[in-house]
Amino acid sequence: MDIEVYCDESRPELFTTKATSADRYMLIGSIWIPKDSRSVIKDKIRGLRQKHSAFGEIKWHAVAPSKLDFYRDIVKLFFSEGDNLRFRCILIDKQQVDLGAYHKGDAELGFYKFYYQLLHHWIKEGNRYSIFTDTKTTRVRHRLKELHQILNRSNLFSEILAVQALPSDEAVLIQLADLLVGAVGYCCHGHGASPAKKEIVAMIEEYLGHAPCEATMRDEKKFNIFRIRLNEGSW
After folding, report:
1. What are the backbone dihedrals phi and psi of residue 212, each rounded to the nearest 5 degrees, phi first?
2. Does position 100 have pLDDT exceeding 90, yes or no?
3. Which of 110, 86, 85, 91 is nearest to 99 (CA)?
4. What is the 3-state secondary structure (H, E, C) of 12-71?
5. Domains along the chain?
6. N or C: lower Cβ tally within 10 Å for the chain?
């Protein structure tokens, strides 16, 4: 089967700045979808845009009272699609990250190692994968090429066709990843200033039966949360 994976992240600057922040988790989220289902899902999202006259970029920061009905319908669509539309997110506690010991003091290298952890454990034998990330500037060239090579070497019975950056404003499934990873981050950081965002988090919690930031088993297929425990040597 051909699978496409669309990724986005939240708070990567926690690794690269010395500025203090009440937030402690960097998150990387991903949407997993069979290639054959992509056009159908995109058509459904297009229909919701037309229904609500919501034509801007879908993203967590855009959740507001004036757009709440649209974002409710986006969440309903995600959960209505079953295993055809899946989400996996890794949470990294900045207080547990030792860049010097494990990443040669290189925050960018550490960032892409966590991308590997997000992806590798959900790659299944016999499938072919195309992975898309949001476009970002890197200090070292070819980071995505290296990630592509490492994923292929560590998954001998599957094939990674591509690891490629796309502008998020041109990739609605990266936008969907942004929305869901934003909701998880809002939950795990205890934010609560926005009633509209709180409602979306509560809606996701109702579907799941637990808080969106709660860790799940690795084989949880629909909404998978990986809280990596670096201080236990578990990765």
Report:
1. -60, -25
2. no
3. 110
4. HHHCCCCCCCCCCEEEEEEEEEEHHHHHHHHHHHHHHHHHHCCCCCCCHHHCCHHHHHHH
5. 2-232 (3.30.420.10)
6. N
Residue listed under structure tokens 């959960």: 79
Residue 98 backbone phi and psi in degrees, to 5: -115, 90
| pTM score, whole prediction | 0.92
Q: Please state which of the ranges 71-75, 108-112, 172-176, 231-235 shows the lowest mean pLDDT.
A: 231-235
d(CA 64, CA 57): 13
User: Does the pLDDT of residue 174 top 70, yes or no?
Assistant: yes
Q: Please name which of 7, 10, 37 lies closest in space to residue 21, comparing C-alpha atoms.
A: 10
21: Cβ contacts below 8 Å, ≥ 6 apart: 11, 14
pLDDT of residue 16: 60
For 203, how many CA atoms within 13 A lie in the half-sphere containing its CB? 19
- Tracing tokens 């869901």 back to the chain, one arrives at 180
Contacts of 104 (CB under 8 A, 6+ apart): none
C-alpha span between 161 and 28 (Å, rounded): 21
**pLDDT tens digits along 203-234:** 999 999 999 999 999 889 999 999 987 765 44
Helix (H, G, I), strand (E, B) or coil at 149: helix
State the residue for tokens 């229904």: 51
8 Å CB contact between 94 and 26: yes
Q: What is the pLDDT of residues 34-93, one digit of tens each?
A: 999 999 999 999 999 999 999 999 999 999 999 999 999 999 999 999 999 999 999 988
